[in-house]
Amino acid sequence: MENLKKYLQFKEDQVKQLIETSGDPTEAQLTSFVGAFASQFLNDIVTVHAPTKVKKIATDGLGVMGWDHRRGTGTDLSATRFIEGIDHMQAAILLLNEIPEPTASELQNLSEAADRLWDLDVNRVHPNTDYAINVQGGKKVYDKRDTAREPFFTFVDAKVLEKPTFRSFINLLDNYVATTGTAEVVTSAERKENYEFLHQIMDTGVMKYCHRVLVKKGLVPSDKQEFIGFLHELWFGLYRRTTNNDSSGFEHVFLGEIKNGAVTGMHNWIQLYQEEQQGHLDYLGFIKPKRKPSIQGCHLDKNQQQLVTIQFEWNGALKNVSSSMIGTSPEFEMALYTLCFVAGEEKNIVCCGPYRMELTCYKYTNRGKKYIGTSFPSDMPLNEDEAASRIQSTYRGNSARRNNRR
Length: 406
Hints:
This protein is of the alpha+beta class. The chain has helices at residues 2-22, 27-45, 52-65, 79-96, 104-108, 110-120, 164-170, 188-201, 205-216, 224-236, 249-255, 269-277, 330-343, 384-405, and strands at 67-68, 73-74, 131-133, 138-139, 153-156, 257-259, 262-264, 281-287, 294-295, 298-299, 307-314, 317-325, 347-352, 355-366, 369-379. The protein has a four-stranded mixed β-sheet, covered by helices on one side. A three-stranded antiparallel β-sheet has the order 13-14-15. Strand 1 (67-68) and strand 2 form a beta hairpin. The chain is globular, with a radius of gyration of 24 Å. 35% of the residues are buried. The mean pLDDT is 87.
């Protein structure tokens, strides 16, 4: 969002400087300038994966300028109208940063609250711009062969990992022993890092909204510091998987663990990227989704999808099926999982942008306290109508291939 504000200010200053040095631009110059601005703004700055409200700010602002973004034409363009359009966008962005009160519908419907979190995740990064993945050929869950010759991640822009909440999150990734059965020892420095991360994310819109929803439902303390304490116990409190104090919700969900020779947990894309870069993770292939997500009626290419199911080996141990969101911010995942764990059920059907997913939350009770055992998203199974349609489509395809061979 900061980059968006800087870009708009740069363009406004550019127009003002041109007017000062050369006078009012001609209609042809304005058409060329505004057209280039609209193209770059919509395709490079505001991508198809941007939150819905950000896209609306962009298109409304172009309308104030007199530019029709669908037709790529302008009407009554002027330098004054261009500046007014920029000002409109800047004012709307300031309002967007104000955290909305949950609606009555969002308080009743967990999926609507989850979708609002998706819109509020302004730190989410975008495929083919901030990072790129290469899923390669698809495979079935039972196929243990390595069907991916190339790494899963093609690149991640280094600037992404320098975002404050991303950096605080990464600082936590070396604080744990991967194998269960070894008690974790939390140093004072590590405990400080835990709280620094929680304070960082509590300054973001997604976590503020999550807190408001849970307070309205009477499920958590309204005081910010008390809520941070609640989050610390919920996510970082140690409990027993194999031996006393050998696990926590945060370690399991975000970093992953090795238990009985198999990988458990590990549902965070930043951890996947870091481990692959360090040579600890071998990507084995992509499990095809049951349904294709779409934006504005267009199916997303498999390398653009931000909910993926994959198979990999980590430090020699197999993770047969692993679902993760790609490009989402650490604060979004913390907010979504906390919201569903505290206010939801063990299995929750939620929508996040173009993704309809099943979000699983297992509770772990230890010494009378409830902790996060695991939390992860997964592709929704087909309903009866979708399954019937898939069977019919497969049958027709097989019949057509048999007829072509005759």
